[in-house]
Design brief:
Helices cover 80% and strands 0% of the residues. It is an all-alpha fold.
Amino acid sequence: MPELLQDAVAGYQIQQSIIEQYFAINERDQHCVGSNLMLLNTLRTYLRKMFEGGLSREERLASIKEMCQHPEVIDCVNHEPTARLCRIDFVEAVRRLDYDFLEKEGRRQYIRSWLRSRTIFVASVVGSIKPFSNFSKKKEKVTS
């Protein structure tokens, strides 16, 4: 889990270098939106995974602080075309360094994900149960 942030940033940096290398200056902005969204969406996943990993509150806040102060993350949230496509409260929280809000957002996503997975599990178990057709019909005697 600690590598998720570094891996996401590394992927972002690779995408940015390819955009700079292969696209004209006037086309770069529109292509940057995709890599920026990828990084910001990964950060939301990162928030949820902190709860799945069982980190303490202090560890979560330290990770969120590291995430918010990362130069690439700052570039993404300050890129207006990208910011308009994300949840505004998430973008503003990263900009304001609102660690408490981001921790609550991660907890909310974790609970939502947990409830969804449990609902799917229960539905799959209920769906695999065969009806008790033996009890609803009377057995006929076979005569020979």
